[in-house]
Amino acid sequence: MGDLMLTGRGYRLKSRTVARSAATTIAVAAIMTPIACGSESEPGQTTATETRAVTSAEPSRNSTRSENAGESPTSQTEYLTDVEPLSFTYPAEGGPADINGKYYPRSVIEAVDKTSIPAVELEYNIGRRWDNFGAVIGIRDDSPSECSVKFDVFVDGKSVYQHVISIGDSVSISIRIHKSLRLKLSVSYAGPIEPREYCYAAWGDARLINKP
Predict the structure, then answer these.
(1) Could you tell me if residue 194 is left (phi over 0), alpha (psi between -120 and 50 degrees) or otherwise beta?
(2) What are the φ and ψ backbone dihedral angles of 81, each rounded to 5 degrees?
């Protein structure tokens, strides 16, 4: 079954045979790190927090449930797999991804390596309608073991979050984007050597959220 490729005009099927590796149980204590502080009342001000994800050894592919930390059942949510990007430097895939042994059915996935595609950017028009951006970031588990990727989030042209992740790790992020206009997601290869194949940087269940 093909993966979905995200393009400027929507999605198209991309054939791919995926060899998924068995995930190892990793339990890491939760951490909460403030990145930047902003006003509750002014548009364009942001606050970002990150939480180290805790994984289980057997991700379920029969359920669309995922860990959306801090999200109320009555929150209004729109997944970026359902949003057409305003612009991109290279097409991304939209669909399921195993990240650090856990399954995320609605992920935005960008392929990078050291030389041919060192960085990828996607920009979205979020129309000053959303309060938060949330995702679990990491490298898809079927990527080469030497993969290391830097994740960057920009809001209205301002860098609000960045983190370098190696394969086998994941971080849950929540970024306040109160009434901002543009959201840009950027990934770049951060490893010292050329990987054997592409590294698949994944924004697991990337979503826009309005809390009640």
Answers:
(1) beta
(2) -65, -15
